[in-house]
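ok so i was messing around last nite and threw this chain in just to see what happens. nothing serious, just curious
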Amino acid sequence: MEHRANSIVGRFAPSPTGEMHLGNVLAALLSWLSAKQQGGLWRLRIEDLDPQRSRREYAEQLMRDLEWLGLTWDGEVVWQSQRTEIYQQYLQKLQGLTYPCVCTRNEILAAQAPHESDGRIVYPGTCRNKNLQVSKAAIRLIVPDELIEYEDRVYGHQSVNLATHCGDFIVRRSDGVFAYQLAVVVDDAEMGVTEIVRGRDLLLSAAQQLYLYRLLGLPAPQFCHHPLLVNEAGQRLCKRDHALALSELRKHMTAPEIIGLLAYTIGLTPTREALTPEQLLPLFNWSKITPEDKCPYKSAV
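result:
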């Protein structure tokens, strides 16, 4: 994949499993603003690895929505579903550091100590030394008992021990589908991505990805995680919030009104006004994005 040498390359990488909502638009907008303000490229990748949940019509609608919003991308769209052989090649480079696993989610939860029941699932390494010879098994990557540290542009210094945070993690599922962590690392490296902008909920997964960058000898990007938009109940905006789906908002709002609403909600502008992405460019600054876990959505009505 071609990319401009020694330049900023950002990206937006949605999963086509439902309609685009305001939380998606915010991630796309901040990524686009950051890349374009630095004179860089902004790429689009469709993360359609999971054939059971991904739908082509959602991907096509998502691209139409981005164009309508004025968030145009550079180069060709990358489809993860077309890159399985490439992921397999990188998986082979991890030989000696991976092993098959047949544990179920319930078995992993049952093995955890009571104080570990905070929502995280920490794999205890049950299958690590079993030398299993089975055809249908997940593939896990062995993680070290050490701190992986990095600087997030919004949330500052991060320090994560993968052994206690998640344990050996899956790089290929038992059904043969490659896992998110491996696929995004391979794709971002091959696309020349230098800056990853995404929601706060993915902050800790950066450590897993940085470990993979190191093992594969790939250059790591700068991470920029932003606060999450939440609805009136304090829940993260997602595909279940149909009223905040872009298809619904487009019925009574223009694209500049939606861009302006998000800019005001996240604190980029002091007042709410209709703005195009280009008009917002000179107003954008990462210092205006405060490291809060959640950002209450300010109603569009």
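not much to say yet. The chain is about 30% helix and 15% strand.
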